[in-house]
Amino acid sequence: MTKDVRKLKTERDIQHAMLQLLTTKNFRQMTVADICQASLTSRSTFYAHYLDKYDLLDQLVAKYQLIFTQKVHLRFEQMIAGEIDALVKGLLADMADNREAIRILFTVHEPAADLEAGFHDQLLAEWQRFIQEKSPTMTAPAELIAAMGTNVQVTVIEWALTHGDTSIDVVADAVNTIRGAVLRQIN
Fold it and tell me: What does pTM read for this prediction?
């Protein structure tokens, strides 16, 4: 069953309004009235779609987390294989339509709705799985190596969100050097 086009447009407008407000206002300071004013909707319309501003944030974070979840394993494997150009270009392609929204949501750190923490946690799980499969008895602390690898990938994501495709070659070389150092600890 498909949603009514009017409902989809209203939800899009409300979501867009929240994202725009987040560029100038802290989430906790933002009110439903602010969102309604920016989206040109009434409070009753807002509450017909969302329980409160936290529900709206939860749904936005879930939407972008799902996009990331669908690609995380592929992007992780590219990092491990040293395909850094493909990794950065792939990240940019994955985020092309949503880059600004993801960049904005990376600045919101609510306990139940933190997109950056969600990306981090998924990548950390990938690194832990990889280390367990490749080197279950390594001498360096596995948690440290997993955290280092995760931080490299999160930094690449943040860089791609902020800078787009600027200086991909230079970034790829730097990331590849760091990647090599992390992987040497596993092998």
Answer: 0.87
